[in-house]
Amino acid sequence: MDGVCIETSRYVVELETDVAASYASLQVDIFYDCDDGRFDGLGSVVSCGPAPEINAYAAFNNTGCLADGEEPRVTAGAISLLGWPGPGPFVSCEYTSATGAPPTADSFRIEVVDAGTIDDKPIKNASVSVSAVRPIAP
Questions:
Q1: How far is the C-alpha of 105 from the C-alpha of 79, rounded, in Å?
Q2: Is the pLDDT of residue 48 over 90?
């Protein structure tokens, strides 16, 4: 099959939970370097969404690239009354590369802020990682 490859600078960054647990809530901070690229959208209109598999309400916030030296980050949080199983898909966000090169898992530092079960117990050692980076056709 013949095809034409079209260069892109836009990607979908997919995140997944790494620890086996039944999640009811999860909040993470996704830190990034503005010299490499940016997540699309600022504040609560950042272009992110929960993975359909988790059936959860999710909220997002992108601080953007600030002049005050604070490290830019996207905060992602999800909550579900029924819970969802991990490990597995969590959220995805659209990202634009500033260099033309696709981001890698090492382009982001992800910190779990809070993770809990449906019976309100903390999930110890919860972690989230980049599971895939997929190009978005221009």
A1: 25
A2: yes
Mapped onto helix, strand or coil, the DSSP state of residue 34 is coil
User: CA-to-CA distance for 103 and 88, rounded, in angstroms?
Assistant: 21
Please report the sign of the dihedral spanned by the C-alpha atoms of residue 102, residue 104, residue 107, residue 108.
Answer: positive
Other CB atoms within 10 A of residue 71 CB: 13
pLDDT tens-digit series, residues 103-116: 999 999 999 999 99
Nearest to 51 by CA among 78, 23, 8, 90: 90
3-state secondary structure of 54: helix
Q: What single-letter DSSP state applies at residue 70?
A: P
Q: State how far the Cα of 93 lies from the Cα of 40, in Å rounded to an integer.
A: 8
Structure tokens at 38: 């940016």
Q: How far is residue 136's CA from residue 93's CA, in Å, rounded to a whole number?
A: 11
- What's the pLDDT score for residue 1? 47
Residue 114's nearest CA partner among 71, 79, 62 is: 79
